[in-house]
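Q: Entry one of two.
A:
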Amino acid sequence: MKCLIIAAGKGRRLQKKGQCKPLIPLYGIALIERTIESALEAGANDFYVVTGHHHERVDAFLQRLSHRLNIPIQTIFNEKWQSTDNGISVLSAAGHLNEPFLLLMTDHVFDPGIARDLIQSAESQGGLTLAVDSHLDNPLVDLDDVTRVQAKQGNIVAIGKDLEIFNAYDTGIFLCTPSIFDALTQASLITGNTGLSNGVELLAATGQAKTFDIDGRFWIDVDDPVAFWRAENALLTRFQQQPDIIPV
């Protein structure tokens, strides 16, 4: 299973922890390495990382990681990395992926079992499946920043940060087919927007955007110092409960 990881942004809100967001250590392990190791545990074995800010540093780190873990990791430089639209980073990989692939964010820390079960259970004939969190009282979620999802009978009805009616959160863990690239291109032409959610909405309109409920399992978007602190506490708690799961 191929895995695409988005790691191009500047991460302005987390710069107090480090100038290069993918390389910021969380309990001594860089965020990008945590994402890759979680994907490995889930069943991915071929990695593509879209870079931008501090491309050279991230690329050098990933080359060393590739050698150390004995896995292929290819970086793809997004020349438009300064855009806040993450769909542009996804589109940067269009020429590299022609089969179903796992799509992850470098700053999301999660239980690898979520991605593993997503791969095993999701349909891959077309479109995409998004792992969603239907526990709306999840204390690790930043309600002011999280992408919201309105889902019905396993299908995405609407997605966006400003949804007023929603019943789940976007965890940033996707199983995609190459149709996401066409959807992002079309969304850009139709609306002028190049966010990942815009492509998902276009697929949802034709019933090609499914949901997979994570059933309360652990995930967190490490996007600012408060989220970083929450992630540290959550990982420490998980390690104390199950020391074989999370290395710290």
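Q: Entry two of two.
A:
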Amino acid sequence: MHIHILGICGTFMGGLAALAREAGHRVTGCDTGVYPPMSDQLRALGIELIEGYGVDQMALKPDMYVIGNVVSRARLPDGAPRYPLMEAILEDGVPYTSGPQWLSDHVLHAPGQSRHVLAVAGTHGKTTTTAMLAWVLEQAGLTPGFLIGGVPLNFGVSARLGQQASGQPRPLFVIEADEYDTAFFDKRSKFVHYRPRTAVLNNLEFDHADIFDDLAAIERQFHHLVRTVPASGCLVVNAEQDSLKRVLHQGHWSQVDRFGHTGNWQAAGEPHAFEVLHAGKPVAQVHWSLTGVHNQMNALAAIAAAQHVGVSPAQAAKALATFENVRRRMELRGTVGSGAQAIRVYDDFAHHPTAIRTTLDGLRRRVPEGRLLAVFEPRSNTMKLGAMKSQLPWSLALADLAFCHTAGLDWDAADALSPMGERARTAASIDELVAQIKSAVLPGDHIVCMSNGGFGGIHQKLLNALQH
């Protein structure tokens, strides 16, 4: 089959393209801003990339157009369609589908080749927990396939098909299960298409204010996911979340394993070294390099999910000892100076207030003596809308200083951060932000840059400025 992917350079669609190519399909695709590293990765797989959404791509005549959720029926100020290729596809009546639907039909549940899908859903920690679970299964010799919304350092790739392991009735496939909508023509959450046998509900808070009116609307989508899990399946659920209790209260038809203080899976000890308890009995010890209570909870979820496919907690804990996390999860980008006087610059994907707070909490536990400088940009659609601006002082409470990039915001970041007093500063440009940080930094500081985008290359600009 020849598929042509619209929006191919997104994390999910790029991973789908890699899986389709590995499965033997011819893959081409288009996007705006086709540039490295994604462009290099895709071209190395033999995938032809086209810049833009021109109608001339209809000449490719693929068997199926696969539409990313970046594509819409929007129009430019002059009235021209923003995505003319999509208009031509609709006009000509040729076959098209969404990315999640194609993945389900041709990879996850292809006729005669259905996989045991382990889906990891939640507002926070999806990428990290998915990577943990894939690594645990890999170390257990189960050779899982996976599609992860980031690059796990243990694997070096974000997607692969995997193989059926001896003793397993089906090949295993671990997928990051996003609640964002599927496509402009399918407003259900992506994860509804995946039909998992093992589903992790890691946590659930309000997010994606651009598509969900309130938390109840997201809870409804999570319950749609619960409905797709068979009776022989397993729901691995955060026991501490009222939102997830409400989801399960709507009905469930599968085994439920709960993790957290009140769950049947618990952790005792510090986040970097803890005992795993199952039904009150010690079953494993985790010693690893990760920090933060959130990662301890992620580990419990991964261990519980792995047990559902036959991996013992002791095996899972041993694998987690060698887990290297995912790029852009408290990734050290560089150091200026040496020893106790060194200034360290980190990159982290945190962009929701809760994620910002847990990121800072994890680093504070690791470096209790050093100052924390939090540098962030409200870049997600939810944050741009200002839906959570009042939570920012709470999310940044552990930072000694906070620096906010305000470009593109329609709300007053300085006013939102005013409860922090002189600890908070704002800047409309990256260069101004770098200058502010440079003037405030002291030897031994830890600078954490948090964004779900490239943040204008601020990490290297900071390192260059601090070198001088």
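A: Comment on entry two: The mean pLDDT is 90. The radius of gyration is 22 Å.
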